[in-house]
Amino acid sequence: MSDDSLKKLNRIVAILTHLQSSRVVKAQELADRFDVSLRTIYRDIRTLEDSGVPVVGEAGTGYTIMEGYRLPPVMFTREEAGSFITAEKLMKKLTDENLGNHYESAMFKIKSVMRAADKDWLDNLENSISVHPNRVLFNKDVPNALEIILEAIADKRQVILHYKTQFKEPSERHIEPIGIFHASNFWYFTGYCTLRNDYRQFRTDRILGIKKSDKGFTKTHPTLEELRARETDLPVTKVRIAVDKKLATYMGNTKYEYGFVSQEETDDKVIMTFMTHYLNYGFERWYMMYADQSEVLEPQELKDAVHQLLQKIQDKMQTAQVK
């Protein structure tokens, strides 16, 4: 068999697996995944049909496989299974307890169909991978938060959320969850708050309690990506700070979380420029970690916020000394 023929066979088998993994698959989605033209995808689909696979084409929608048609279990290569081992480590440490346990259970099923030699190879690999998150991502008293959120998204049902914000008392919210995302080393979910009649983001480690509601969604919502894109339309403020050169090296990636865009070096300083959404929502607190070796160049609003924060710290220390 020629290389081209083998490549085509592998692609057709992969297309069949893809079709079995989703209810409906668009031709463009397949073309993008395999980096081929739509014409090639159409030919591959005809090849599957000619071989007896009951592929059903839905005009303007995509392809699906007739209900009830199943192939024997797919065999994984050890390299594919090896990627699952890495994912399992991440799932156990970077998601909540219940979701991690479900993934672990799925991994046992995957391993059960592997050859003995490949199982040994996976065992060697598994003992050499370790994940150590540097932050608490979930409330240990709510081990199934992500599981409930994901089920509610799929079922289009509200959740009843008991939530604690940074500066307010805990409150109960009825939320229509839309999607989850990981950013700045935390898990968040975005949802429609029926109390505020607006979309809000919630951090999973601040969830004090969560349960599914019997109520369905009250409206059709934008996708998670559409809502995330709206954040770029929020007002931004230009910030410039001068940082000692030695310190700049150790500021790490946290600066990107606050809108870092560029920097330039002088003789003994690094001038950093930010375009930030967070001037009044945490930028001053982040800056305080480096304030003894840096200087705010602009804006005045940030200088005032830092001064007010320092004043609060000083007042608390004086009060504590009097006591």
Task: Describe how the helices and strands are arranged.
Layout: H1 3-21, H2 27-34, H3 38-50, E1 55-58, E2 62-65, H4 78-94, H5 97-112, H6 116-126, H7 145-155, E3 157-163, E4 171-183, E5 186-193, E6 198-203, E7 207-216, H8 224-230, E8 237-244, H9 245-248, H10 254-257, E9 260-265, E10 269-276, H11 279-288, E11 294-298, H12 300-322
Antiparallel strand pairs: 1-2, 3-4, 3-7, 4-5, 5-6, 8-10, 8-11, 9-10
Helix pairs in contact: 1-3, 2-3, 4-5, 4-6, 11-12
CATH class of the largest domain: Mainly Beta
Write the H/E string, N to C: HHHEEHHHHEEEEEHEHHEEHEH
Helix percentage range: 40-55%
Q: Report the CATH architecture of the largest domain.
A: Roll
Q: How many domains comprise the coordinates?
A: 4
End-to-end distance, in Å? 86 Å
Characterize the biggest β-sheet: 5 strands, antiparallel
Radius of gyration: 26 Å
Major sheet: arrangement of strands: 6-5-4-3-7
Briefly note the CATH topology name of the largest domain. Answer: SH3 type barrels
Characteristic key phrases:
SH3 type barrels, Arc Repressor Mutant, subunit A, 4-stranded antiparallel β-sheet, 24% strand, 5-stranded antiparallel β-sheet, alpha+beta, 323 residues, globular
Overview of the molecule:
The chain is globular. It has twelve helices and eleven strands. A five-stranded antiparallel β-sheet has the order 6-5-4-3-7. A four-stranded antiparallel β-sheet has the order 9-10-8-11. A hairpin with a 3-residue loop joins β1 (55-58) and β2 (62-65). It folds into four domains: 3-65, Arc Repressor Mutant, subunit A (Orthogonal Bundle), CATH 1.10.10; 78-126; 145-231, SH3 type barrels, CATH 2.30.30; 234-320, Alpha-Beta Plaits. It has 323 residues and is of the alpha+beta class. The protein is 44% helix and 24% strand.
